[in-house]
Amino acid sequence: MPETVWWKRGTVYQVYPRSFQDTNGDGVGDLRGITQRLDYLAWLGVDAVWISPVYPSPMADFGYDVADYCGIDPLFGTLDDFDELVAEAHRRRLKVILDFVPNHSSIRHPWFTDSRASRASPRRDWYIWRDPAPGGGPPNNWLSNFGGPAWTLDPATGQYYYHAFLAEQPDLNWRNPAVRAAMHDALRFWLDRGVDGFRVDVIWHLMKDEGFRDNPENPDFSADLPEINRFAQVYSADRPEVLDVIAGMRAVLRDYGERVLIGEIYLPMERLMAYYGPDLTGADMPFNFQLIQTPWRADAVCELVENYEAGLPEGGWPNWVLGNHDQPRIAARVGELQARIAAMLLLTLRGTPTLYYGDELGLGHVPIPPERVRDPWERNEPGHGRDPERTPMQWDAGPQAGFSTAEPWLPLSEDATTRNVDAMRDTATSMLTLHRRLLGLRREHAALAVGGYRTVPLGLPEIFAYERFEDGTVLRIVLNFGDAGHTIPLTDASAWTILMSSHAGRSGARVSGAVDLAPAEGLILLRA
Ligand code: NOJ
């Protein structure tokens, strides 16, 4: 394997800590639970674990409302538990990536308590306070991502504070150098404890328009969309000044060697690319959610991959994401069969893959009865909630699928007695085995981990084919997005060996001239 920094070579695995493993019987996952399951992650073959927020928090948004940037919420454990997790991960050559939430704190953060106490508070300017509009009402038309206005009036001081999310999540004022300095200190606190990088929450939101201009109306808005889409978020986010803020964070990381900065960014492709920053001073990896947003068709995905590859800045490293704690499960979106194609795609494209816990089991949409809804967004805007993709990891066929000894905070999937790690780990055809084999191949073949990419045009609308190559090794990946079989021409005289099929079996077979592809089958071929 050529010498390449770990986050380019490796695969990131996202753990939603409430739902991974509970060790203290409260129905909510914890840090010790993650530590207990590190052997599983090593066995699976991922390289880094990204942990969604575990900081002290009132949990209005399940940890994305931070009350102390340098601590651990007792629900998840202690700083000692955290240190142990990092040490145990490192012992297994697994990296640890923390979720960092700098755009907003909790309303309970002492900084905000101080800020809201009076207009003269030393920390007043750490948050975004504005007078009511002339004639009263919120200062402008900005909306909360969770529905309703993004401004809440604080009657005691007569001003509104801005919150891009819940009223319990006031936005910090990143134009204030003291805020930047405090946040840099928080980054150093965790870097000093050995974390290998950060996934930065809503990084494109950090700077807002200095003049707080109204957002323009979105002509494409329709009532089935969340209310935030009523306006184009032109002034409330994605301001050019944000790149300087990101460069500041990156500079902090640079002092610590090979650490990674990943930015969460939901923007169109052209804008996303800007977040690599001038001369790559921005995020190492601006999260690429395009696969989540593109229709599941071979031609659309092929076009996306080509546009993304072509749009990358010189030296910018690609990455791909299929799911996370905010998006419907991939298996629910494309169906069980195509979820296998999706896994093969994610783990063979050029760029760092991020795999969401449970997707390796093919977990689908878990229905949440009304009385068990937990996500505040679902309460504000029914139908948009994220509970169905946050349900507990399923480990075995025992009570609570081995996740907890108590009733879990969210329900298990109905098929938990068969859809679990224990039941699937030794089955050749399981989704879990498919993931493990793909991750194994990625480690075995530098062409997959760090090699080049080129499309193989076949002129078959349901098939997406491409090659990954490095140092004379060529792998060809052929993915059938449709439900008909095809005979695929191999376009040159070479002989090929089937390394694996998404349907299991066929490995080791030699083919030349053409190869048969079953409905919804994916193949990885190695040129002889
Ligand atoms: C993005 C996070 O992924 C999401 O879960 C959270 O609700 C918002 N940011 C607010 O922090």
UniProtKB/TrEMBL annotation:
Residues 372-394 are annotated as: Disordered. Residues 372-390 have a biased composition (Basic and acidic residues). Residues 14-390 form the Glycosyl hydrolase family 13 catalytic domain. CDD domains: AmyAc_OligoGlu_like. It holds the Pfam family Alpha-amylase. InterPro entries: GH, GH13_cat_dom, O16G_dom_2. SMART domains: Aamy (SM00642). SUPFAM superfamilies: (Trans)glycosidases, Glycosyl hydrolase domain. Belongs to the glycosyl hydrolase 13 family. This is Oligo-1,6-glucosidase 1.
